[in-house]
Hints:
Shape: globular
InterPro entries: Aminotrans_II_pyridoxalP_BS, Aminotransferase_I/II_large, HisP_aminotrans, PyrdxlP-dep_Trfase, PyrdxlP-dep_Trfase_major, PyrdxlP-dep_Trfase_small
Helix content: 40-55%
Enzyme class: transferase
Family: Belongs to the class-II pyridoxal-phosphate-dependent aminotransferase family. Histidinol-phosphate aminotransferase subfamily.
Number of domains: 2
EC number: 2.6.1.9
CATH superfamily of the largest domain: Type I PLP-dependent aspartate aminotransferase-like (Major domain)
Strand content: 5-15%
CATH topology of the largest domain: Aspartate Aminotransferase, domain 2
Order of helices and strands: HEHHEHEHEHEHEEEHHHHEEHEEHH
Structural class: alpha/beta
CATH class of the largest domain: Alpha Beta
Bound molecules: pyridoxal-5'-phosphate
GO molecular function, one term: pyridoxal phosphate binding
Radius of gyration: 22 Å
Amino acid sequence: MTTPQEDSKKQRSQKLAALPLREELRGQEPYGAPQLTVPAMLNVNETTYDVPADVVEAITEQVRRAATELNRYPDREFTALREKLAHYLSRESSLEAPLSAESIWAANGSNEIMQHIFQAFAGPGRSVLSFPPTYSMYPLYARGTYSDYIAGEREEDFTQSPESVAQQIRAHRPNVVILCSPNNPTGTALSLDVVEAAYEAGEDSQAMVIVDEAYGEFRQQGTPSALELLPGRERLIVSRTMSKAFALAGGRLGYLAAAPEVADALRLVRLPYHLSAVTQAAAEAALDHSQALMANVERIKTQRDRIVSELGEMGLDPKPSDANFVFFGGLQDEKTAWQHLLEDGILIRDVGIPRHLRVTAGTEEETTSFLESLRQHLAAESPRAAARG
Ligand SMILES: Cc1ncc(COP(=O)(O)O)c(C=O)c1O
């Protein structure tokens, strides 16, 4: 017996199959984690604290002002926004040589940033190399831009060595390399010698090297940003987003820093006026309040470190994390653990790696309920684990 919803889904998929769709899209599922409203939503690495009231006020006021001019197209150079982003990044990473506004490009989330980069530097007959397990959108950007995707390899503990990264780049000669640091889903950060080695190894194939630092603000003390390596490296791109540390996932603002000519290349592929006046206004107001918005980063890092330490005490295998989430293994069955947590109102992420799950570090209360629920699950599974916990 099928339900009416299942019947209607089947009919839609038959109708989709009848469309003259690109062959490589047939049978594919759209990207997207479950969007469920439950008390603790810890599955997509958002900041779970609300946007502070004074920042809501400031964003509302700036958007209100922008609304009076919505009859006009927005500033397609988003000049004021680029200036604020350059200023913010230079301060956040204590850069010796401050970035100029010309080195900045922005788009609707860092997903669109990546799409621009692929459109300009990858494409038919060109290839892109990244190192799974990593952000699962990378192969999809490749598919969307008709680029070949090459899955590189990392060490068993998910780290990457300069030698191995350089050797794989020399072997594959990709046009674009993506390093994700801290890496999603494992939380692993890269040392700068890995980025330097990737850049040097990419000299032969003139590879553009992207360091995706979507979670950069959560890095452990002493972990540097690849922004420091930008001077003199015109094929290097550092990508960031306001979706994570800025608590602005709904605002859709991603950005990058690179040589000014990289931004010129991306101007060739962006759609006209791709950043709406409303987006620009909201992001500018948020940047004016970056300190207030970022106040929760330290609290989130504390919960992240607490998760790593308590999961270890439970006998699980949490990976060290420089991000706002923790990836952990050692589960008997990740699907039943995920389901148990969901039944307790806690949504975390099954990233498709057996015996592993990923959880976002939320507020102290959310973290406590996650840890308690998981502890109960482990105790029910194995009374010996309960004695240990
Ligand atoms: C590593 C990484 N890069 C990029 C993104 C895209 O973020 P956004 O498009 O919201 O900026 C994400 C989102 O989770 C991510 O994990």
